[in-house]
Amino acid sequence: MNRTAEKFGYPGTLVAEWSRWLVLLRPAQPTLGSLVLVCREPATRFGAISAEAAAELREAVAAVERALGELLRFDKINYLMLMMVDPDVHFHVIPRYASVRRYADEEFADACWPGPPDLTRGAPLPEAVASQLARDLRSALAAARG
Questions:
Q1: Would you list the domain boundaries of the chain?
Q2: By the 8 A CB rule, do 116 and 50 touch?
Q3: CA dist., res. 122 & res. 34, Å (int)
Q4: 3-class SS at 59?
Q5: Which pLDDT value is given to residue 121?
Q6: What is the pLDDT of residues 107-127, one digit of tens each?
Q7: Is residue 37 classed as helix, strand or coil in its secondary structure?
Q8: Any idea which architecture 3-145 has in CATH?
């Protein structure tokens, strides 16, 4: 597996996978439900992914949006492809919320709404919340792929 996936906790953070893409629960959560979508191919430029990976990306993104929408009811969703530190092709998937969300008996606010997300503000979720969110996302993503 590539270093970017490993940096974001693979395989422990894995919530869904396709033949060419992994969906990982982002360890530091700038907003509730933040994910990392990592290409499994050895590509360090978006233009270098295969046609098959590009086609599969559409399927993965559609499933992610359905799952996050049903589970957390985001208002907007941001995809950030930065690749400044982690060179493998990947996106940070940041659901955005205009109002506080309640999940697992805790409240979560999007501190940067309506501006751009700040990835440096991300913090790990409490272990019980992270475990529940990972389970719920696995289930929601499996259903979204249906």
A1: 3-145
A2: no
A3: 9
A4: helix
A5: 87
A6: 999 999 999 999 998 899 999
A7: strand
A8: 2-Layer Sandwich (3.30)
- The rounded distance, in Å, linking the Cα atoms of 118 and 102 is 21
Q: Which amino acid is at 47?
A: G
Residue 115, number of CB atoms within 10 A of its CB: 9
Check if the beta carbon of residue 2 is closer than 8 Å to that of residue 40: yes
- DSSP 8-state class, residue 125: P
> Contact at 8 Å (CB) between 41 and 49?
yes
How many CA atoms does the CB half-sphere of 84 hold within 13 Å?
A: 2
Question: For residues 90 and 46, what is the distance between their CA atoms, to the nearest angstrom?
Answer: 9
Which alpha helices (H) appear in the chain, and where do they start and end?
A: 3-7, 51-72, 127-145
What is the number of other CB atoms lying within 10 angstroms of the CB of residue 82?
A: 10
User: Mind listing the pLDDT tens digit for each residue in 49-101?
Assistant: 999 999 999 999 999 999 999 999 999 999 999 999 999 999 999 999 999 99
Classify residue 65 as exposed, middle or buried by CB count within 10 Å of its CB (0-12, 13-18, 19+). Answer: middle
As a residue count, the chain comes to 146
